[in-house]
Design brief:
Layout: H1 2-13, H2 17-30, H3 36-47, H4 51-64, H5 69-78
Helix pairs in contact: 1-2, 1-3, 2-3, 3-4, 4-5
Amino acid sequence: MQHHILLGDSYSGLGENDKAIEIYKGALDVSRRGGLPYFKLSQLYNKIGDHEAALLHIDIAMALSPMNQKFAQFHKKIQ
C-alpha cells in the first residue's frame, strides 16, 4: 500500500490529479483497513474543490483511525 501512497503523492505533486485519485483508490484495493488512503483522497478532493468527496473520505479515515490527530486536524480545517 505504501508504494501506492508515494506514487499518488508524486502524481498529485505534478498536478496529475485524476491519476493520483486512481492510484490512491488502488491503495484501497490493497487494504481497506487503514485510514491513510482515505486521508490522501480527502486532501486531493479538497485541493480540486470537491468538498463533499473530501468530507466523505476524511470521515472514513477518521472512523478507521479515530486517534489520528492529523486526520482530526484536517477534518476540522475543511468543515
